[in-house]
Amino acid sequence: MKKIAFLLLLIGNVINSFSQQKRDLLQNEAREIGIEKALIKDFSELNFPTYYDRTFWENIPDALRKKYIREAEEYLDYDWPVVKATDYLEIIRSGNRNSHAYAAPRAALTAVAMGELIEGKGRFTDQIVNGCWYYSEQTWWGWSAHLKNGKMPDGLPDPVEPLLDLGVGEITSILSWTWFLFKVEFDKIHPLISKRLRDEIMTKAVLPYYEREDLWWMGLDIPRKVNNWVPWVNHNLLTAILILEDDQEQKIIGVQKVLRGVDVFINQYPEDGGCDEGPSYWGHAGAELYQNLDLLKRATNGEFDIFDKQLIMNIGNYIYKAYIDYPYFINFADAAPKTGSRPQVIFSYGTDIKDPVMQDFGTFLAKEQGWGIEIPEGKIDEQILQLMHLDEIQASPARNSLVSNFYLPDIEIAGARDTEGSSKGFFFAAKGGSNGENHNHNDVGSCIVFYNGKPCLIDIGPEAYVAKTFSSRRYEIWSLQSQYHNTPTINGHDQNPGARFKAINTNFKSDSKRAVFSTDIAGAYPESAHIKKWVRSYVLEKGYELKIQDEYELIQSGDGPTTLNFVTSCKVKEIAKGTLHLEGDGFMLALNYKAKKVSPKIEFIEVTDSRLKSYWPEGVTRIVFKFVNPRLVGKNEIIINDI
Fold first, then answer.
1. Neighbours of 34 (CB within 10 A)
2. Rounded to the nearest 5°, which phi and psi values hold at 574?
């Protein structure tokens, strides 16, 4: 009964999601180029640097080489841990995802592998072997939070029913690259090492991928809404298939399954290229899509190429549209307010779609993050690619991408700033959409406001993930509720979750003097809120002020109050009736309200969650404007300006 209910929920989700279009861009391209003939037979044909390309590794900048070697040396005596049954079970006992149990050995293997590639003296080879043997002995390579929906009860991995999740995909890629790079060295030690490693990768990941079409994230067996898991897992499995599959006919079949899978993801993507999961999740959505396309292009000697498709261009350039000023990005849904994003991917994506703004932005991000000085983040393949592009990106022009305004009509997100190319003055972003989006918060009609590139009105972001985060109790978490976003509480009611709770009549217009976003958010609230219309508007008078306007019509009064809620990282002080001062990072703003219509209450919120504390260490403040003598029909305006 439980599984039937889950199935119905999935079907309901896809009905309410973006309507699926049979674009099938990847499969069509594969047919057009004849991928059966175009696909390489051996991974070495892709011309990635191998362990024996010593000239490449010795030309890495000396400071970076030393950091790689020092990091690897930290793991020379690493004691590879056992993942205990209780480590897995913690997710169903306390809700703790116990991610350190999986992250530490992954970091160790990546470090010693990269250290050996750099140094090339065999000093780290034994620890690489130990890491491969450790994973070969392990039952499952995934993350405990994803041990669900199998035949056995949640909580422990079942070796009889291998599940493929994000963690399995990531380790599969790391181990496949390790096999490719060090197989000859392994065979010098013992022939069973590379054989065992390949067998385990095939058994735990590649063969289940070939055989299964029913895993929820695939979207292959029944129509359902999919997310970043699709390009993320498929990219890692594509890597393993290209490296390990020695039967060319089966390799082609495996690659064709990747094409089918990634097409499911693209077929659901909105035409505007907007990522409803937010910019930090674009790093595993649009960026992983690019990694699939890049690898397919390399694996066909350049013949597979869909970078001229407008949708692919839109998915790419979303990342700089959703950017505020380093390191801040628009963070609706579960996205983080700060993200380093993926500089090399952004640069290379921009190169392939011939978008110089995206290219220059990738270079800018790379230089902000110590490109060529600090060890790059990512799996083995991602670090190698960054090192391959090191000289090219360092020699390229860097430009901070500060677009004047943008509007994504499909996901109903817009943004505008005072001046193109400058972070000085106001920036705002706002959203319509629905409360059934990926990683959804109940935030229809919400906004974020920055001044001089620093936060003022904010989206708090998500707490550290626990089991509750992705359960039926998700919206018990305070930071996901609409009352802790920049949205109204109406007749005592906050917004409800689900795709049917959505905005209508969303519009955005902008010119050199003004940008206006408006949306009717009445439909985001339950019927018991008795709302006929509630139009929330944001008006940026460029170079002057930001107005937040509400025009509403209620059917009747409710049991509770109507309030306008705003969350800020600024220090808030009431100066006089009608004026609050917002003191931020290097700025002071006045928030002006009509004291005859609304009365403010200032609530400081101490932030204790580890993830939120990393963004807002000094806490946040909620300003609650309660309507005074509310009427059924009315207007209200709040104005924010510089002092």
1. 11
2. -85, 120
Instruction: Give the pLDDT confidence score for residue 4 in this predicted structure.
Output: 40
| Amino acid (1-letter code) at residue 57 | W
- Sketch out the chain's domains with CATH numbers: 30-264 (no CATH), 269-400 (no CATH), 405-642 (2.70.98.70)
DSSP designation for 372: T
Distance CA 263, CA 278 (A): 21
Run of H or E including 499:
strand 498-502
Residue 596 corresponds to which tokens in the numbers above? 């005859």
Residue-level pLDDT at 10:
41
Scan for tokens 């405990």, then name that residue: 144
Could you give the C-alpha distances from 344 to 66, 367, 400, 456, in angstroms and in order? 22, 11, 15, 30
pLDDT confidence of 184, banded at 50, 70, 90? very high
Q: Which pLDDT score, from 0 to 100, does residue 20 have?
A: 62
Q: What percent of the chain has pLDDT over 90?
A: 91
Mean predicted confidence (pLDDT) in 534-546: 98
Distance of CA 126 to the CA centre of its chain: 35
Return d(Cα 138, Cα 81) in angstroms, integer.
Answer: 10
Is the model's pLDDT at 8 over the cut of 70?
no
For the chain, what is the total number of helices (H) and then of strands (E)? 21, 21
If we measure between CA atoms, which residue out of 603, 617, 613 comes closest to residue 572? 603
CA 202 to CA 429: how far, in whole Å? 46
Could you give the 3-state DSSP secondary structure of residue 320? helix
Nearest residue to 149 (alpha-carbon basis) of 477, 499, 470, 497: 470
pLDDT digits over 482-525, tens only? 999 999 999 999 999 999 999 999 999 999 999 999 999 999 99
Task: Outline where 96-225 has alpha helix (H).
Answer: 100-119, 125-137, 166-189, 191-201, 207-211
Q: Inform me whether the pLDDT recorded for 591 exceeds 70.
A: yes
Name the DSSP letter for residue 490. B
Which residues touch 6 (CB under 8 Å, ≥6 apart)? 149
Instruction: Give the tokens for residue 354.
Output: 């011939």
Residue 127 belongs to what H/E stretch?
helix 125-137
Residue 612: C-alpha distances to residues 51, 448, 618 (Å): 41, 16, 10
Average model confidence (pLDDT) for the chain? 95
* 279 touches 287 (CB < 8 A): no
Backbone angles phi, psi at 291, to 5 degrees: -65, -35
Burial class (CB in 10 A: 0-12, 13-18, 19+), 13: middle
Instruction: Report how far Cα 25 is from the mean position of its chain's Cα atoms.
Output: 23
Cα–Cα nearest to 640, from 598, 585, 592, 596: 592
What is the Cα–Cα distance from 316 to 492, expressed in whole angstroms?
41
A 10 A CB-CB count for 318 gives 24
Maximum C-alpha span of the chain: 83
